[in-house]
Structures are given as structure tokens and as C-alpha cells.
Amino acid sequence: MFSIIEQQWKVVAAAQKTLQPFKVASKQLQGDGIAGKRSTSGGFDEYFPVVKMLLDHLDLAVQGVIIEENDDQIMEEVHLFDDMDAKTPRLLKIYIKLGWKKLNDYYGKLTPSYIPPLQEIACSSTASEPTTVSSDLGMEEDTCQKLSGNLGREVQDHGS
After folding, report:
1. How is 109-145 classified by DSSP, letter by letter?
2. What residues have CB less than 8 Å from 51, skipping those under 6 apart?
């Protein structure tokens, strides 16, 4: 018979808390393809902000902290590595860093052919406020105006 000691349960709990946002993000990005039916529709413009949020989550997790919603629906800091021996947090940090690297590599695969659609979404002149995508891409209004002239040339240079 196999039994798990208390220290091992702490590792399982830390892993579960670290991975929970990935479960939520997966469901969010699935959407249903119908805008307005759910909070997300699985559209391309939703992908990058969610991946960035996951990268930020892993950045905090490496420091031993995550932000979690409590029972009163208030966000609070949760310390992952409390009451663990010295070796366990080091190992967990290695695994979290490997996960961050893999996700960041995937996030970094943006090719020039994806830039115009993102540009259009991020710099939409009909938006009353900057979109999430424009904020995440660090685009301000004048940045969008400058990019709009350069994007056509950049795409032509890359043969798209």
C-alpha cells in the first residue's frame, strides 16, 4: 500500500495551485465561437493576453507567491512554499521555470504574418479605450499610427 506523507501533500497542493490558472485559461480559450454567448469566444485576439497572464503567474510562482481568489471572491496572495523543507522549493522552482520557458517559447512564435491582424485589433479606431491586446503589446495610439505605415512594407519584405 502506498501512502503520502504530509510534506508530499504540500507539494501536490503547490502544484495544483500553480496549474489551476492553466485549467481556467484552457476553458476560456476554447470559447464557443459565438461572440457574446460566453465571456470569451475563443477568438485569436484573446490568445495573447491569456498567455501573457499565464507567464506573469509563473513569474510570481517562482518567487513562491500566487494570486488566488478566496471564498469571498477577493484576490489574495498565497505563499506556495511555506512549511516546506529547503530542498523542495528549489525543485519546484526548477519545474516552474521549465514550464515558463516552454510557454514563453510558444508565445514567442509570432511571425510577421500575424502582425497585421493583431495591429488591426490593437489599434482599432472604433475602440473608445485601448484594447487588451494593444495594452499587452505595449501599443499607444501614436505607436499604432506609426506602425500602420510600416506594417505593409514589413509584410511585403517577408513575402506574406
Report:
1. ---GGGHHHHHHHHT-TT-SS--HHHHHTT--HHHHH
2. 25, 103, 106, 107
Query: In terms of pLDDT, which residue wins out, 159 or 43?
Result: 43
> Which residues 6+ apart lie within 8 Å of 55 measured at CB?
100, 103, 104, 107
* Domain boundaries, given as residue ranges, for the chain: 1-109, 111-160
Distances (CA, A) of 22 to 26, 59, 60, 61, 113: 6, 14, 14, 13, 27
Q: Which three cell numbers stand for residue 116?
A: 497585421
State residue 91's pLDDT score. 94
Q: Which three cell numbers stand for residue 159?
A: 513575402
Residue that the C-alpha cell 507567491 belongs to = 65
Residue 106's Cβ-count burial label (10 Å; 0-12, 13-18, 19+) is: exposed
Contact 149, 123 (CB under 8 A): no
Give the span between the Cα atoms of 100 and 90, in whole angstroms: 15
- What does the pLDDT look like over 65-77, one tens digit per residue? 999 988 999 999 9
Exposed/middle/buried for residue 65 (C-beta within 10 Å: 0-12, 13-18, 19+): middle
